Amino acid sequence: MTNTSLDELGPVDYLVVEFPAGASNFTGEMANELIALVDSGTIRVIDVVILTKNDDGTVDAAELGDIAELGELQAMEAQLAELLAADDIEHLAAAMEPGSTAGVLIWENLWAAPFASAARRSGGQLIANGRIPIQAIIASIEADEALVTEGV
Amino acid sequence: MPLRPGRVGRVGVIGAPVAKAAVVAAAVTPGPSPVAKTAVVAAAVTPGRGLRRRI
Fold first, then answer.
1. Choosing a second label site near B30 at 20 to 30 A (CA), which of A61, A78, A79, B40?
2. Local structure of residue B3 (DSSP, 8 states)
3. B52 at the A interface (CB within 8 A)?
4. Contact call for residues A120 and A7 (beta carbons, < 8 A)
5. The pTM is what?
């Protein structure tokens, strides 16, 4: 992890992408897109862990460096910080189905860092953030259209 | 595989067990329903659409 002052740190997010048993189809496309995001300066990858949840509920965790052929991810692996603690991995694996494999990705949104920093310098404090699911947008639109149809 | 020593015994950053986000799984499931609604959603976030705000 490079030294980044807290004032310049962009928002840090995580995601867990689950691949149900027998459903994975790794062609390298995901890695390529991730590398593109890093190369464009959009994000900085902070941590990556690959989890496997066994049928009995136990979880195996593998580091990115444990993968035999990393290809272009090799350079990224060298820059990772081990942000996730063992407890975190247990907490994240709680969302997984038995028999599945999941990739855990922690990243800094570099694109947002200058704006966030400016907001802090301006005296602003983040009091809420989140993601709006596509389903919520669809539901809103459909409710809107229903109102129009009913002439309300 | 065992975790690297640096991950063990540290205070974590994920505060509690994470629940599965079923809504996200549905959004990325291939099939006619999400695909058919793509245009609708795109229209909703297009500038100037003028969504009514129900506050």
1. A61
2. P
3. yes
4. yes
5. 0.77
Phi and psi angles of residue A48, each rounded to the nearest 5 degrees, phi first: -140, 130
pLDDT (tens digit per residue) in B1-27:
678 888 998 889 998 999 887 655 555
CA–CA distance, B51 with B41 (Å, rounded to integer): 12
pLDDT per residue as tens digits for the range A125-136: 889 988 887 778
How far is residue A47 from each of residues A17, A32, A84, A101, B6, measured CA to CA in Å? 14, 17, 7, 17, 13
Distances (CA, A) of B2 to A48, A60, A65, A89, B26: 15, 8, 13, 12, 33
Closest Cα of chain B to A83: distance in Å?
A: 8
Which one of B8, B19, B37 has the shortest CB-CB distance to A95? Answer: B19
User: What are the tokens at B42?
Assistant: 């795109």
Question: How confident is the model over A107-123, as pLDDT tens digits?
Answer: 999 999 999 889 989 99
- In DSSP notation, B4-42 reads PGGGTTSPPSS-SPPPP-HHHHHHT--SHHHHHTHHHHH
| Among candidate residues A49, A63, A42, A64, the one with its CA nearest the CA of residue A16 | A49
Residue in chain B closest to A138 (alpha carbons) equals: B41
Residues 6 or more apart whose CB falls under 8 angstroms from that of A72 comprise: A31, A32, A35
Interface check for A115 against chain B (CB to CB < 8 A): the answer is no
**Are A108 and A43 contacting, i.e. CB atoms less than 8 angstroms apart?**
yes
